[in-house]
Amino acid sequence: MSIERIAVTADYDNGLDSPVSGHFGHCKAFIVSTVKDGKIVEVESVLNGAHSSCAEPVDRLASLGVNVLITLGMGMRPYMHAQQVGLTVVKGSEGTAGEAILSYIKGQHEVMSRDGLCGGGGAHQH
C-alpha cells in the first residue's frame, strides 16, 4: 500500500478546482491531498497565513505529513528548506490543483531544480 501526502499551491481555496498558484510564498492556500494506491482519498485546504520566514509554511506542510509539494514557482530559501525537511518539490503547470495531482500520480511531472526557482520578492513571471 502506497500513501503520499501532496500539497499544491493555490491562488484561492476551491478544493481540487483551485488554480495552481504562481508562487509558493504568496499563495492563498495549500490544497493537501492524501493519495492511496494512486487514488485521491482525502482533500483538505490549509490557508497560507502571514509568516515571518520562508521556513514557516514549509514546516507547516511537513508537520501535516506532506512529502510532495507542487507549485509553479518558489524562491531559493523555501526550496532549500523543503529539501532539508524531506519535501520533494515538483514543478506544476497551469490548471487546477486536481489536474496537477493527477499528472503527478501518472508520472507526468518534473522535479524542480535550482534552475526553475524564482528570484523572490516581486511578482512571479511565467
Order of helices and strands: EEEHEHEHE
Unreliable runs, pLDDT <50, ≥5 residues?
Answer: 120-126
CATH architecture classification name: 2-Layer Sandwich
Distance between the termini: 37 Å
The major beta sheet can be summarized as: 6 strands, mixed
Spell out the CATH superfamily: Dinitrogenase iron-molybdenum cofactor biosynthesis domain
Mean pLDDT: 87
Provide the gyration radius in Å: 13 Å
Number of strands: 6
Range of helix content: 10-25%
Give the neighbour order of strands across the main sheet: 3-2-1-4-5-6
Strand content: 25-35%
The CATH class designation is: Alpha Beta
Describe what is shown at a glance.
By secondary structure, this protein is α/β, with parallel strands linked by helices.
Topology:
Layout: E1 3-10, E2 29-36, E3 39-47, H1 55-63, E4 68-71, H2 76-84, E5 88-91, H3 97-105, E6 110-111
Parallel strand pairs: 1-4, 4-5
Antiparallel strand pairs: 1-2, 2-3, 5-6
Features of the shown structure:
single chain; 126 residues; alpha/beta; disordered C terminus
Protein model, in words:
There is one protein chain. With 126 residues, the protein is of the alpha/beta class. It has one domain: Nucleotidyltransferase, domain 5 (2-Layer Sandwich), CATH 3.30.420.130. It has three helices and six strands. The chain has helices at residues 55-63, 76-84, 97-105; strands at residues 3-10, 29-36, 39-47, 68-71, 88-91, 110-111. A six-stranded mixed sheet has the order 3-2-1-4-5-6, sandwiched between helices. Strand 4 (68-71), helix 2 (76-84) and strand 5 form a beta-alpha-beta unit. The longest helix has 9 residues, at 55-63. The model is unreliable at 120-126 (pLDDT under 50).
